[in-house]
């Protein structure tokens, strides 16, 4: 993995897990010092994140973490509600006992994060469950689009969600696995739609920006 890719992954992870909260400024000089690379390299990564809507770059003001608008948050979640149930027939066709075991292990990790009250980890694991499931549909382009939607909804949840946005209140992912194991397609599609609608309903667009970020401490090691 290239240095640029490592830096991209580190910053993206920090945004999704709310270590860099919405609205947080991303000064090129501080990031350059933290990662030990040139400002040109940092600028390239920030431009990539801006294309993906995780970062906003304003002339003469620099970059900051995107703070999703109410409309954007609704559009991201509505897109997931529309698309993810439609992938389940293909997912079910490619489903195996191996997949069932793998996804049940993911659910166990989610439960541990919930027990540890680790909101950032819960957000990341919930998104991972959904986009890994999408890749079983054998439609690479659609799966990649859903992965980006999951990342963007993670930003929405990190900014404006609550524990209810990633807890069993929205539906235990184990229930979905059980339905897929038993080839209950209509029930699985209904579960997915209800699950995503519950997440959408849990969003409150009143998140507050956190305190100043120590970039050196946050990005001490990019290996």
From TrEMBL:
InterPro entries: GntR_C, TF_FadR/GntR_C, Tscrpt_reg_HTH_GntR, WH-like_DNA-bd_sf, WH_DNA-bd_sf. Residues 1-68 form the HTH gntR-type domain. CDD domains: WHTH_GntR. Keywords: DNA-binding, Transcription, Transcription regulation. PANTHER family: HTH-TYPE TRANSCRIPTIONAL REPRESSOR NANR, TRANSCRIPTIONAL REGULATOR, GNTR FAMILY. This is GntR family transcriptional regulator. The lineage of its organism: Bacteria, Pseudomonadati, Pseudomonadota, Gammaproteobacteria, Vibrionales.
């Amino acid at each position: 993995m290239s240095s640029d890719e490592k830096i991209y992954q580190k910053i993206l992870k920090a945004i999704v897990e709310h270590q860099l909260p919405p609205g947080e400024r991303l000064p090129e000089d501080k990031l350059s010092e933290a990662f030990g690379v040139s400002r040109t390299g940092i600028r390239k990564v920030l431009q990539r994140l801006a294309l993906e809507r995780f970062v906003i770059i304003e002339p003469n003001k620099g970059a900051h973490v995107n703070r999703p608008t109410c409309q954007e948050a609704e559009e991201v979640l509505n897109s997931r509600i529309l698309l993810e149930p439609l992938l389940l027939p293909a997912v079910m066709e490619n489903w195996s006992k191996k997949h069932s075991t793998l996804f049940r292990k993911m659910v166990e990790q989610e439960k541990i994060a919930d027990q540890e009250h680790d909101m950032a980890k819960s957000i990341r694991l919930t998104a991972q469950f959904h986009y890994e499931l999408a890749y079983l549909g054998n439609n690479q382009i659609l799966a990649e689009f859903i992965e980006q939607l999951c990342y963007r909804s993670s930003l929405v949840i990190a900014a404006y969600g609550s524990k209810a946005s990633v807890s069993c209140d929205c539906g235990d992912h184990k229930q979905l696995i059980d339905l897929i194991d038993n080839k209950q397609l209509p029930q699985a599609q209904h579960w997915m739609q209800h699950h995503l609608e519950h997440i959408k309903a849990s969003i409150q667009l009143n998140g507050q920006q956190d305190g100043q970020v120590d970039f050196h401490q946050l990005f001490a090691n990019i290996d």
